Amino acid sequence: FTRLRVDGEIVSVEDPPKLDRYKNHSIEVVIDRLVMKKGLRKRLADSVELALKISDGIVVLDFPGSKNGEMTLSEQFACLDCNISFEELTPRMFSFNSPYGACKTCSGLGFYQEVHPDLIVPDQNLSISEGALVIYNSASKTGFYAQMVKAVTKYYGIDPDKPYKDLPEDQKEILMHGSGGERILMDYEGRSGRGQFHIKFEGFVNNLARRHKETESDNSREHIEQFMIQKPCARCSGDRLNPVVLAVKVGSKNIADYTRLSADAAYKYMLELKLNKTQKFIGQRIIKEIKERLKFLIDVGLGYITIDRGSATLSGGEAQRIRLATQIGSGLMGVLYILDEPSIGLHQKDNKRLIKTLERLRNLGNT
Ligand SMILES: [Zn+2]
Ligand SMILES: [Zn+2]
Fold first, then answer.
1. Which SUPFAM superfamilies match (predicted)?
2. For domain 114-230, which architecture applies?
3. The pLDDT of residue 47 is above 60
4. Least confident of 30-39, 132-141, 205-214
5. Domain 3-85 CATH superfamily
6. pLDDT above 60 for 139
7. Which of 65, 78, 190, 351 sits CB 3.0–4.6 Å from 85 for a disulfide?
8. Is 262 in a helix, a strand, or coil?
9. Where are the domains of the chain?
10. 34-43, 300-309, 312-321: which range is least confident on average?
11. Residue 132 CA neighbour count, 13 Å, CB half
């Protein structure tokens, strides 16, 4: 190389400027200078490649005399201006079941669960002694929780015989969210004897939330979930994937937008997708696959079903026809199918399509 660019000034390698050792300097190598014309494409490509090689993937293009100014290009998936970078995209990143794709905040669930006071006290007309706090109703009346409530009500002068709705707000607040670390003396009588000790009452909302997080038993987790409501995740707003993945779009839609479409609309979207030559070449096989599978769903009369629909919410007839669509897709032959009212819930106009589907299965050599 014969030229450098030091702090923006082009200098000769032979004659470098004096540099202040206590300052940061930008030192770049000038790889090539050319006026683009026919026949130079190869040289330009070689120069860019050389630049990428010695710089670990970053090249600056300067267009002297043009108002375009400079252009920094990077081989890494990174933007120097926004200071973000990410790994090379892989299929597993597009699944919320994979830690590579899942939203970090909700672990790919799309929602989070929160203990709600109204579920702990569903009937505010009851008093505490009548069982307003359903959380410990199922537990023993003499158990730890009952004795804890007794200690708390006694300490704060909460009337256990007053309907819950008539209790002052600050007392309800203590019951739900605790006493802020205040130590309460509690009488306790258990199988192993009786005694007195100090507890910190964290409140029922916090208590349930903590136990939900800490428990290793599915049973108690499920029990606690009765007192929880679901809220859409604040980070991904229910899209379940991380921001990098959601920033990837085909046409105008990311994968979450796309899976919210019905099979009909998703099929139409693929038909109308405008791609340039390179994109077409890259996408042709996957687009063909997607269209075929959507067509199977449409053929068995399920065009109205959205792709993100949970399988637990499907009716028996729908689930059966989805299995049928999968079967057609797999192209199996020599199989005996037993279908139990496959047209149930099917619109009259879709019966013909279903019958065609069955005939296709038969023509493949199935019975
Ligand atoms: Zn950027
Ligand atoms: Zn999320």
1. P-loop containing nucleoside triphosphate hydrolases (SSF52540)
2. Orthogonal Bundle (1.10)
3. yes
4. 132-141
5. Ribosomal protein L1/L10, rRNA-binding domain (3.30.190.20)
6. no
7. 78
8. strand
9. 3-85, 114-230, 249-367
10. 312-321
11. 24
